[in-house]
C-alpha cells in the first residue's frame, strides 16, 4: 500500500487492514474538501516563498481540474493507496513530477484531515439547516391551517385541557428554533481553521495561517497549535450534541404521530400509500416511517456518548483513536437528514380530524375552563376548584365548549409571526454567503 509516511520496512498486512479501518469507505466524502484545503495551502506557500509563481500556478490548475472531476465523477482511491490525502498527492506527483511533492511543505496529515473534516462538517451543517428550515415552514403552515381545530391536551398521558392542532404543530416548530440555536453554536466551533498546526506543534516555516483562514472562508483560526489537534474529537462531539437535540425533537414528534394515528386516538390520518400493512391482518395501517424515525433519533441521541467514550482520557496530541469517529458521525449526519426529509414528506400529506372535542368523552377537558369562568365571576379559585370537582364526582358537571385563550402562545394567540422571526434570525446568522464567496474565489480567481 502506498503511504506518505512509509520508509523501507513493509507493514504487516493484518496491521495494515486494521489501522486503515473504514478510511477507504469514508475518505471519498472528504475528497473535494481536501482539494480546497490544498488550494488554500499552495496559495499561502507561494505567498511566503516556498513555491514559485509558476509552481503554484501548475498546482492550482491541476487541483482545480481534480476538483471538477470529483464534482462530476466522484472520487475513488486507487488500489493500494491509504487515504484521500495520499491519493491527491500521488496524483499530483504523477502529473507534475517533483512539483507535486512540494504540496506537503508546512503541513501534516494531522492538520490536513482536520481541515477536511471542518470543511466537510461545515457543508453538512449547511445542508441540514436548509432542510430543517423547510420542515419548520411546513409545521408553521400546518399550524396556521389548523389553528382552530381543537384536540385533547394530555399530562401524564391523561386528559388534561383543550389544545389545538395549531398549538401542537407550532410547538415543534418552536422547538426547532432552539435546536437551530444549538446547531449555530456547533457551527461556530466547526468554522475555525486548524491548517498550519501541522502534526500539532506548528512549523519552522513562516506560514501565514491568517491567509488560509480567509481563503477558506473560516471565521477565525485555532490559534494554539496543540489545541488545534485537541479539537479533533471535541468538534465532532459538539456537532453530535447539536444533532442529538434535533433528534430529540423529531423523535418526540414521531412518537406523537404514532399515538395519534392509533384508532383509539384517531386524531390524524395518512393516505394508504404512506403506511404499511400486515402479512396476516388485512386491516392494518402501520406508521412504519414514524417508528423508524423514532428509532433512528434514539440512535442519534446516543451519538455524543459514543464519541465521548472514544475520546475519554486521551492526552494532548494526535491519537489514532479519533479515526473511528468518522464511522459513527458520517452515517449519523445522513441518517438525521433522511429523517427530516421523510417527516417533511409525511407532513405534506397528513390529515387532521375535525371536531374531535364534540365527543362527550372529552368533556372533562373543559373543567379548568369552568373553574376559570367562576373565578372571573368573583369566586375564589380554591372554592371554584372544589365546586367543579364535586360536580364531576357527582356526575352533574356541565360545561361550555367555548374557549377564550388570548395570552401569548395560547390556543387563541399562537404567535406564529414571532416564532418565524426567531427562526429567521437564526438562519440569517449563518455566514453561508461569505463562505461560498471565499470558496468560489479559491476555485476561479
Give the CA-CA distance, first to last residue: 36 Å
Fraction of helical residues? 55-70%
Mean pLDDT: 93
Number of strands: 6
Name the beta content range: under 5%
Please work out how many helical segments DSSP would assign: 15
Number of domains: 3
CATH topology of the largest domain: Fumarase C, Chain A, domain 2
Structural category: mainly alpha
CATH architecture of the largest domain: Up-down Bundle
Overall geometry: elongated
Strand order of the largest sheet: 1-2
The sequence of SSEs as H and E is: HHHHHHEEHEHEHEHHEHHHH
CATH superfamily placement of the largest domain? Fumarase/aspartase (Central domain)
Radius of gyration: 28 Å
* CATH class designation of the largest domain: Mainly Alpha
Task: Provide the low-confidence segments as ranges.
Answer: none
The profile of the biggest β sheet is:
2 strands, antiparallel
Amino acid at each position: 500500500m502506498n503511504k506518505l509516511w512509509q520508509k523501507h520496512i513493509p507493514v504487516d498486512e493484518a496491521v495494515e487492514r486494521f489501522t486503515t479501518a473504514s478510511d477507504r469507505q469514508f475518505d471519498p466524502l472528504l475528497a473535494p474538501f481536501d482539494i480546497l484545503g490544498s488550494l488554500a495551502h499552495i496559495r499561502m506557500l507561494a505567498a511566503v516563498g516556498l513555491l514559485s509563481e509558476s509552481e503554484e500556478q501548475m498546482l492550482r490548475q491541476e487541483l482545480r481540474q481534480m476538483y471538477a472531476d470529483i464534482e462530476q465523477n466522484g472520487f475513488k482511491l486507487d488500489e493500494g493507496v491509504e487515504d484521500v490525502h495520499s491519493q491527491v498527492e500521488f496524483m499530483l506527483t504523477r502529473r507534475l513530477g517533483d512539483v507535486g511533492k512540494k504540496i506537503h511543505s508546512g503541513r501534516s496529515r494531522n492538520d490536513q484531515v482536520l481541515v477536511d473534516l471542518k470543511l466537510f462538517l461545515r457543508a453538512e451543517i449547511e445542508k441540514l439547516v436548509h432542510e430543517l428550515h423547510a420542515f419548520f415552514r411546513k409545521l408553521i403552515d400546518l399550524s396556521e391551517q389548523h389553528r382552530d381545530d381543537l384536540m385533547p391536551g394530555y399530562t401524564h398521558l391523561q386528559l388534561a385541557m383543550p389544545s389545538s392542532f395549531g398549538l401542537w404543530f407550532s410547538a415543534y416548530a418552536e422547538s426547532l428554533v432552539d435546536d437551530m440555536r444549538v446547531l449555530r453554536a456547533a457551527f461556530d466551533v466547526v468554522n475555525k481553521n486548524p491548517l498550519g498546526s501541522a502534526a500539532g506543534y506548528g512549523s519552522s516555516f513562516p506560514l501565514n495561517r491568517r491567509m488560509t483562514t480567509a481563503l477558506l472562508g473560516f471565521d477565525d483560526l485555532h490559534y494554539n497549535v496543540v489545541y488545534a489537534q485537541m479539537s479533533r474529537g471535541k468538534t465532532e462531539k459538539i456537532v453530535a450534541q447539536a444533532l442529538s437535540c434535533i433528534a430529540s425533537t423529531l423523535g418526540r414528534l414521531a412518537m406523537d404521530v404514532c399515538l395519534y394515528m392509533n384508532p383509539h386516538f384517531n386524531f390524524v390520518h395518512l393516505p394508504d400509500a404512506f403506511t404499511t400493512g400486515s402479512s396476516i391482518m388485512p386491516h392494518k395501517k402501520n406508521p412504519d416511517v414514524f417508528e423508524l424515525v423514532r428509532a433512528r433519533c434514539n440512535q442519534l441521541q446516543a451519538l455524543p456518548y459514543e464519541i465521548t467514550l472514544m475520546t475519554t482520557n486521551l492526552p494532548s496530541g494526535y491519537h489514532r483513536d479519533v479515526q473511528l469517529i468518522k464511522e459513527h458521525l458520517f452515517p449519523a449526519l445522513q441518517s438525521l437528514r433522511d429523517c427530516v426529509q421523510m417527516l417533511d414528506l409525511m407532513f405534506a400529506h397528513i390529515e387532521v380530524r375535525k371536531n374531535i372535542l364534540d365527543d362527550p368523552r372529552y368533556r372533562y377537558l373543559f373543567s379548568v375552563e369552568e373553574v376559570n369562568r367562576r373565578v372571573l365571576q368573583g369566586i375564589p379559585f380554591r372554592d371554584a376548584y372544589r365546586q367543579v370537582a364535586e360536580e364531576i364526582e357527582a356526575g352533574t358537571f356541565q360545561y361550555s365548549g367555548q374557549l377564550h385563550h388570548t395570552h401569548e402562545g395560547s390556543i387563541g394567540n399562537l404567535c406564529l409571526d414571532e416564532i418565524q422571526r426567531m427562526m429567521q434570525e437564526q438562519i440569517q446568522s449563518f455566514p453561508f454567503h461569505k463562505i461560498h464567496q471565499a470558496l468560489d474565489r479559491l476555485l476561479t480567481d
